[in-house]
Design brief:
The chain is of the alpha/beta class. The chain is built from twelve helices and nine strands. It binds S-adenosylmethionine.
Length: about 280
């Protein structure tokens, strides 16, 4: 299908069903074929692998995925889209449409234990919670390829010391190896969002790049450090209720890993956070 025909087709489907895109569900549909192809190529999907798509919308990406994958499990929360998907994807027997909220879906159970990848043009209102839930629940997929708001993508791959560096960066770096694949201007969507987007590909790691005894402590330190990112690490952590650590204990641990007492969380790499967690558990 040409770019023009995908855009026309999207409008035609919307008109035929009298469908109006819902802001509440973050509905911005891709109207550029090249973007669809780039997402699928970035996902590294192989013919014998399945894919879980989050939010198929009108089914444009789903259709391209169905050509590249074994089975496609498309999880869509908006029940108004289900009859539209059933019609636009009719005859494609490897597509399974599931009318559910992804945050309440057991993703692993969908694919019957077979190898799978996750691909999505994510709804902006819930991007970070979806990514964090997939990572923290260790959903056993090979990779996650997502279109996200440009600012979120930059946070996912930021370096220490950068204003975008934070808890999301560290979680993404702990569970995956991530890279921005391409930028996507807002003109590639119907309706056009206010911001540009990027496609991020994350290869899920078999083993995190740092070893820690207490993973929960590591993530409490990270959350505490960025909860009030303007503060020094010492003040941010000693005022963070979930940690419940004495200020002097934290001061000593920061000194033990060779950092200045005035260091800020945003200066610490994942390795240094792991060292700090180690100093607090030894
Ligand atoms: N994949 C389509 C495309 O690229 O044109 C639509 C992408 S649109 C940005 C996001 C889609 O996610 C919408 O179809 C929306 O209804 C759906 N969605 C929103 N919240 C969801 C949730 N919690 N679980 C599953 N789908 C959701």
């Amino acid at each position: 299908m040409t770019e023009r025909s995908l855009a026309d087709n999207t409008r035609a489907v919307i008109d035929r069903y009298g469908f109006s895109a819902s802001k509440r569900f973050g509905q911005n549909f891709i109207k550029d074929n090249r973007v669809l192809e780039d997402i699928v190529e970035a996902s590294c999907l192989k013919k014998d692998e399945s894919v879980v798509e989050i939010g198929p919308g009108l089914g444009a990406l789903t259709e391209v995925l169905s050509e590249a994958a074994d089975q496609v499990y498309a999880v869509e929360v908006d029940r108004k889209l289900i009859p539209i998907l059933e019609e636009t994807l009719k005859g494609r027997d490897n597509i399974h449409i599931i009318n559910q909220d992804i945050m309440k879906t057991d993703v692993k159970a969908l694919t019957d234990g077979r190898p799978f990848r996750i691909v999505a043009n994510l709804p902006y209102y819930i991007t970070t919670p979806i990514i964090m839930s997939l990572l923290e629940n260790r959903v056993p997929c090979r990779s996650i390829t997502v279109m996200v708001q440009k600012e979120v993508g930059e946070r996912m791959v930021a370096q220490p010391g950068n204003k975008d560096y934070g808890a999301l960066t560290l979680a993404v770096g702990y569970y995956t190896k991530a890279a921005i694949v391409r930028k996507v201007p807002s003109s590639c969507f119907i309706p056009a969002p206010k911001v540009d987007s990027v496609v991020v590909h994350m290869d899920v790691l078999q083993k995190p790049p740092v070893e820690v005894e207490d993973e929960e402590l590591l993530f409490s330190l990270i959350r505490g450090a960025f909860n009030q990112r303007r503060k020094t690490l010492l003040n941010a952590l000693s005022g963070y209720p979930a940690l419940d650590l004495d200020k002097e204990v934290i001061r000593k641990a920061i000194a033990d890993i060779g950092e200045k007492p005035t260091v800020r969380g945003e200066e610490l790499s994942l390795r240094r956070f792991a060292d700090l967690a180690g100093a607090l558990t030894s």
